[in-house]
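pasting for the record
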Amino acid sequence: MAEGTALRLLCAAAIIGLATAAAGQPRERLGPVQDFDPRHYDEDERPPERDAGQKLCSVYAPNAWRDTIPVPATWSWRDCRDYARLVGATHIHLICVFSRGEPKTSLGGPGELPEPDCGWGRRR
């Protein structure tokens, strides 16, 4: 039991010694934020990434009419083709619209995918 008491006293003395040493350390006052060198923070800023984009299904009958609708991300080119058949269109364009990056829009079809592609090329 005496060994346990001695160990506790030794631990308590070490804690007091560390606390006293830490309290005695000089403190530097930090300057205002504008004193920081901005070069240290440049690497934290990432260039804007391209977003997933909005898919648009554009169906048309040449020299007659066109209908363009926003569609869910899950739509494939087959879904756009089926919509074209439903409304009596004979051709389709697959369109992507992006809020970030360049280019802001891309057009594909008939028979080709937009570049950059916002998911029209994925298979289900």
